[in-house]
Structures are given as C-alpha cells and as structure tokens.
Amino acid sequence: MLNLAFLWHMHQPWYQDPQTGVLALPWVRLHACKDYLDMPRLLQEHEKIRAVFNFSPSLLTQIEQYAQGAVDLHLALCLREAEALSEKEASALIGIGFSGLRERMIDPYPRYHELWLKAGRGNPFSPLELRDLQVWSNLSWIDPRWVREQPFLRDLFEKGAGFTEGEKRELLEFQRKLLGEVIPAYRRLEESGQAELSTSPWAHPILPLLSDSDIARKTNPGIRMPAEAFRFPEDAGWHLEAACAEHARRFGRRPRGLWPSEGSLSEAVLPAVSRAGFEWLATDEELLWKSHSSSDRRILYRPYRVPGGERELTLLFRDHLLSDLIGFVYSSWRPEEAARDFLRRLKAVEEASHSASALVLVALDGENAWEAYPQDGEPFLRALDQAISEAPWLRCVGVSEYLKEHPPQERLSSLAPGSWIRGEFSTWIGHEPQNRAWEALLAARRIAGPQESRSLAIAEGSDWFWWLGPEHSSPQDPVFDRLFRQHLKEVYQEAGKTAPPSLDEPFQKSYERKLPVPTGVVRPLLDGEVSSYFEWLAAGEISLTATGSAMARAKPIFDRLWWGCDERHLYLRCDPNFPLPEGVLRVVLQVGRFELALRMEKGLLAPPLLPSAAAPGAACGKILEVSLPLEALGIQRGETVEVAILIEQEGLILERYPEQGSFALFVTPPTVAQEHWSA
User: Using CA atoms, how far apart are residues 456 and 435, in angstroms rounded to an integer?
Assistant: First the structure.
C-alpha cells in the first residue's frame, strides 16, 4: 500500500496600501471566486481523498478584510456606474480589466474577446462597453461550480452583453458573500477529519535569509550580495509565532504543520520552528539530495527526524516531478489521460518502494495552477480523485494522520540550506535591484522590528524580492515596487523619523521591457557550439526563465533563446541549463504554421521535414542550433514569426516556452522600430 499526501499551498502577496487601506491588486478577491471555496467542495465529493491545505496568514488577513468591506482598485472602478467613470478611471479599468489568462478567460467569451480587441486598438469605450468590461472582468473569474448552482450567473453568461447596473451589483455582492464563507468552510472541513490545515510564516518571508542573508553564499558561492548582511534570526521566530497565533484564532487550534515560504530552509531556522510548536514541516526534494549521501529514489518517500533545538522535528520532502506535472504540465492533457499518467507514476513508486509505509508528498500552488486548465481544473481534479479512490494499492492521507501511524525512523544529521527553486536563494537575493531592496530593509529594521511595526513585518515578505529579480516579471512590477517602498516609509513614519529620499525612487530603474531584436546578419555554423565570439553577437535574445508568471519551475531545461537570420534562413539557438541527455528528450519547435519535431540521436537532432527542397539543419552539443529556410516557412524578411518551444519525454510535455501563447520574433532587423515580441 502506497500513501499519498497532497499539500495545496494558498498564498497571495500583501496588496493593501498602508496609506489608503485600499488593496492595489484584486487577486485575493478574484481567486476567492474561482479557487478557495471550490477546492474544499471538490474534496468533499470523494470521501476517500484527504488533503492538507496550507494558508499564508497574509492571504487569510486579506480575505477577512474583504468580508468586512475592504475594496481594491479594480473593485472600486467596477462599483462606479459606468456613465460616471472619468476618462482616467476608464483607462485604468481597461488597463486591469483583461488580466486573466487570455486562452481560458477571454477568448471563449465573444463579447469579452471583442472588448479585448478594441482595447488593443486603443479605441475609446462607450459607457455600455465599460459596463460590460466591469462585468466580464469579474464574471470570467467565477468558478464553473457557482455558474451551475446560481441561476443568475447562468443568465449573465447567456446574456453576454448589455449588462445593467443591477446585474453588475448582484455579481459583486455574490463575490463578497463567497469571501465571507472561505475561512468557515475550511474550519468545518478540518473538523470533519477530511482535511488538515497548516500554515506558512506570517508575511511569507524567506526564513533563512532573515536569519542570515549570507546563507545565499553557501548555495551560490559567486553570488553578488548586499553591502551588509541581514541577520535577525529573532524575526524568523516572530513570523512563525505570529502565524501560529493567527491560525489558532481563525481555526480553533494551532497548526501542526508548516510549509516554509517557498520551501526555504536552513539548519539555523529549525530551532525557531520547534519553539513555535510545529510538529512537522515540508520542503522540496532538492534539499534531501544535498543532505543525504544516497541517491536512491526510495529515500525520498519517508519522513525524517531533524534537530530542532530542545526537541526534534519531522521533515518531509515533496516529489518535485509529480508536483510539477500538476502545476505545469497536465493542463494541456485530456483529464482522464493525465489522471492515468499520474497513477502510472505512483504505481512505479509503489512497486519500487517495497514498503507499506512509503509516503509520496505532492505539494504545489493551490490557486494559480488552475488558470491554465479547462474549466478551472475541475475535470482533471475529479478524474484524479476518482482514479485514486479506485486504486486498491493507494491510500490518500493527511500528513499528521500518516505520521501518527508511521513516525520517522531515520535521522538527518545535517540539512543543506535551500528552497524549492534550484535548491538555492538567487530568486530573492543577488541581483542589483534586490540587493538595494535588502539594504533598504536593513536600514528600516534598525529602527523597528516586526513586533513593533507591522509594516516592517510585511516588508520582510518574499514577494517583493520575487518581482524585483530578473526571473519574474508582470505588468504589476511597478505596483509591487511602490508598495514595498511604501511599507518601508511607514516604518520611519511610525518611529517619528524622516524616510530617506532614496525610498522615493523605484528599485528597478526602468520597467520598460528591453525589446530583443537582431542588430545584424547572423550566420552561425551549425555544430552545437558557440564557435566564435561573433557567431551570435548580432542575434536577438530572450530569457526563457522570465516568462512573466507568478509560478516557476525549479530548474528549466532551457535558459535562453537566441535568433537571427541571413538572406535565406532563420536561425534559432537554445541554451540549456545542463547537458541534454541523448535519446531521451524530444524538442518540438512550433514555428509559424509548422511544428518541427527533433529527436536526439548521438548528439545530433534528426532533421525535421518541411514542404521545400531546401533542407533545414540542426545540431545539439553544448547548445541547440537550428536552421530553417525562410521560403519554406512562408515568411518574408522584416516580418514576425510566432515561435513556441516544447520539451517532451515519452509523450509527456515537460516544459513549454512560453507557458502560454508564443513569442513573436522579427526574422530580420527591422528598419522601423516596432513592438518586437510578446509572450
């Protein structure tokens, strides 16, 4: 019998502006309409399924604020009568009114898609169009469950356009009702025994960096660090204690389990975890492989005792691949096929483990993942829950339930520091804007600690540094930068001091995306190597890790895409993060209207077929290089071509660049500056 535990991590950054009290972004409210209540309802449909739901206190606090009447900027714009919106307000509504995933949340609805096209042309909206946008920018986030259960929602979807102020108000009031039901629903679910509720540190900080930011040097010896280390281990303890206290207030009991923010751990923070009263905590398998002498996969599927000061803690490691399959891959599969594949992989673990106590921990984001799934992931989750319920060799358990029966037998003598992303910390520290932000945080911390200043505690959260780094970007980057600086200013104001003028300047010097475009002719030698300094010097370049998503993989297979052309060919180059294994991966290039499948064979790639006598070329060594005839592709110099890259293994899509849509690349240096790419 194999044991399976799901941990769904629910988290949103702190969006509330400390000066106005208004939430700058609407994602807590919109996810409440789509995910937070639907997840427990789905669980209750299958009595054999258990789960751990992990809530960050920063999310729960904002849910409570909404239920008590708080508003965000988007909601404030939607509450206004469309005819009363000023030109500036109308522009702001249009700017944030199309923030859902286009393929799932805009394109399926003709009126919403029509408004999206009009916004792209820059044409002004009439009051009727603005009201329809107010409705659709909320309605598209409504979970299919509520549409089935609420006739007035079905009527709105069927009507599609020409909404009234009354219909809009009924929709927004329904949202607030859902927000008020979230916390009581999870409390009831835990009391029923079908779910366990765990927590994360109060403002979702990276605990090892709060304790000693120089720990990042241990995982990245060459990393560039702030001028002075941030060392306040007592702050890590405060965030843990505060999280436990708020959890107990809301759910009637202290949490047994902890998902440390971003799975980030170091030995230095374990005593604080123990003092806060936690019994178990979980992180990514990458930390296990860095801490254990064995590379046998079977050691992943057991709990461990780790030193926690006066008492030991139980530590579990999540299966990274299985978690990522749900988070990033199965959204493009048919639900039944995805469920079968997941069970097939679990069966392989069960057969290899030779132990009735083996535990597979699947831990991932419990909200953002579903945006990429059809019908918000409901068909997939139902198919998965049904498949698990019908498997006689598989048992779905809560973590504490499992540990009561199978306490850890093995002790880890040491724990390597790291996070779920590459087993290190460079996502949150080490880049120039991040380092300046850490230095500003240190200056504010010398004035007050989290116990004296809630704004300081909020500023210690991980999300500010996530969006300041080069790996992640979104149109809201300036909002996160401003909110972070605003919280630091509050620390000074609360202490009766003057904030330094530097906090009036963004940490990111510019939020204008540099437009990658070839600057000259590119004629590489296709040998899988960078043969000379000048070979790709004039090429355009895109980071494949900076996809603009709030989600991330631990270590993507490809890091960068380069492209350029000569008179007859388009050239593509992909740089991997590590050597590519032969005979395992299949690279699929979607270029224009063609899909080109390249198989690894003895370090080379089998050539794809194009409807042309001109043969393409491809080679893979340290890099992947591909040559494609422009004539065969049917594109002219100066035009753009849509490009997406898929990595497959045994029929499974491991990665896709970008995650949705495609890159629009100029095939030759343009003569007039234009918008060169989008993702």
Answer: 17
Single out the residue of 236, 289, 277 nearest to residue 260, CA to CA.
Answer: 236
Q: What is the DSSP letter of 230?
A: -
DSSP code for 487: H
Name the DSSP letter for residue 375: G
Which fold is adopted by the domain 540-666? Immunoglobulin-like (2.60.40)
The total of other beta-carbon atoms located within 10 Å of residue 617's CB is 16
H or E segment to which residue 308 belongs: strand 304-308
Q: And the tokens for 98?
A: 């199309």
Phi, psi (degrees; rounded to nearest 5) at 565: -155, 160
Backbone phi, psi, residue 656, to 5°: -140, 135
Measured distance CA(258)–CA(273) in Å, rounded: 8
Mean pLDDT score of the chain: 89
CB 396 within 8 A of CB 191: no
**pLDDT tens, position by position, 278-321:** 999 999 999 999 999 998 999 999 999 999 988 999 999 999 99
Q: Where are the alpha helices (DSSP H) in 507-621?
A: none
Look at residue 202 and give its three-state secondary structure: coil
pLDDT at 611 over 80: no
Q: How far apart are CA 397 and CA 359, in angstroms?
A: 9
Encoding tokens for residue 424? 């290190």
Instruction: Answer for the pair 448, 487: CB distance below 8 angstroms, yes or no.
Output: no
| pLDDT at position 514 over 80 | no
Helix (H) or strand (E) holding 378: helix 378-390
pLDDT in tens, 80-115: 999 999 999 999 999 999 988 888 999 999 999 999
